Amino acid sequence: MTDEPDMDPREYYDEFGEREWERLDRDPVTRMEFENTTDYLAEHLPDAETRAVRVLDAGGGAGRYALWLAEQGYDVTLADLSAEQVRIAREKAAERGVGERVTAEQADLRELPFESDRFDAVCCLGGPLSHVVDADERATAMAELRRVATSQAPVFVSVIGRFAMLRDILKSNLDDAHGLLAPITADGDYTAERVAEHADGEGWAECHGFRADEFERELEAAGFEVETLVGLENVANRMKRELEAADEEAVADVREVVRTLREDRTAVDFSEHMLAVCRA
Ligand SMILES: C[S@@+](CC[C@H](N)C(=O)[O-])C[C@H]1O[C@@H](n2cnc3c(N)ncnc32)[C@H](O)[C@@H]1O
User: Fold this and answer.
1) How many angstroms does the Cα of residue 17 sit away from the middle of ligand 1?
2) Which of 132, 162, 167, 250 falls 20 to 30 Å from 237 in CA-CA distance?
3) From the first residue on, what is the mean pLDDT of each consecutive set of 10 residues in the chain (280 residues)?
4) Which domain holds residue 272?
5) Into how many domains does the chain fold?
6) Which atom of ligand 1 lies closest to the CA of 158?
7) Rounded-to-integer distance, Cα 264 and Cα 94, Å
């Protein structure tokens, strides 16, 4: 029997280190994920000019969103499973001169160390909930996000899309990994057990790839009101190489099309990351 690869999210992100900080500014497609997300944050977050607004960035990683939020005037608490990501986030916040606005600590989404109703807004962006593969544990994590938010607070959650995950397998090492396609199509779970059984080599961190309807259902079951679903990369999915080679005008046209299509349900389902804008 093949040994299971180590795909534990905490260890994966400890090792991933600074690459997580670079992720959202790595290429035109990851920049679209960031820009489209911050568009919705800017539209729905409470105004920080008239009063102090406390925002939780859960699964905040190296702090790209936390720092952006702090720069907009929010008081940010970043919580992440990985001690190394928390260290990087603290370092980046100090370097960017917003250290006083950002508190970063190690914490698990499934048991957040904060009192109920503590935050005026909650973010969980770039897929942290996808790394909670067990459905019951994910329901607990979603309930935790809601518990720590004040009533009616805006809550922003983005996860990994199942179709994009399947395309990654198709595009990477198909001969070695094609056995993963059928089970992941059925339930979205990319686990160490399955990688050991159906694929050669190392796996990425364990994760669950969502369908749009399923994502909405799980959020509603946790008590959220889902206002909008957004396909953050949609037609630009996995077009990194093509867009890096394209001129600025062409990339601007693609960004515009992605913006136009981003709330289209098919575009949501097909995206690498889908964002839900909710109310607690
Ligand atoms: C792809 S990164 C996204 C980081 C950041 N939000 C962003 O968009 O750049 C996913 C993050 O989720 C964190 N994570 C995974 N499972 C978690 C859990 N159960 N509790 C808290 N954080 C978790 C990982 O440590 C990692 O930093």
Assistant:
1) 12
2) 132
3) 77 90 89 97 95 97 98 98 97 97 98 98 98 98 98 98 94 84 96 88 89 98 98 94 92 96 97 98
4) 9-162+208-279
5) 1
6) 8
7) 39
